[in-house]
Amino acid sequence: MRLFTILTILCIHSLRGLGQDTLPKFQVINSKGRIFVAFYNPYPSALQVNIERSFDSTRNFSTLYALSDARPGTVTFTDVKAFNDHMFYRIFIQQSSGYAFTAAQKPVLALEPPPAVAKKAQIDISDAQAGGSPVEVIKKKEWEPSPHVFTDEYGNVKVELPPPGDHKYELKFYDEQETLIFQMSDIKELPLTIDKSNFLHAGWFNFEWYTDGVIQEKNKFLLSKDN
Fold this sequence. Notes:
mainly beta
């Protein structure tokens, strides 16, 4: 029971994942100041699906992004032009039978478990294991978007790194099977935009960022077919 209680505390405080809800439900996540809108469009007959934003929860909404192809599928959108982290977002859905708006919502802050809670959980789990057979507890690490390599509102890949100075930057891009697609060496012009056509298809892609040959970050990003 003690072990179950500790794991429950960790789950409550763990980072909220970016798994897509199904419309009319959707997610708006504030991850370190970057706003993400994510959802799954289930409507095969949708004529238009728009992401809208406003300072108010009921009026003055403006369209941020209109899906060029409103077929069923996963949509992830990064609001790189958000005025602040407490704007309101909603989804406009038009079908042949009419149109509707989802309820408006503000970004939910993605929080890491407090260090004290995480440390106490490790101690208590060790205590529980000491009295009997070892119990291996594996907590799946949630994906957290990179602040350096991410998709913009047009579906292209943005690269925002610190000024390189005398250092040599290198980026390597891989598909989900870890097959190298292409790499960029000695990057000096920043920030830069990589057209999505370089990746040939939608889906998850992995990247590695090196400085002077030493890896600095390994992460991934999602290219939506609807961007």
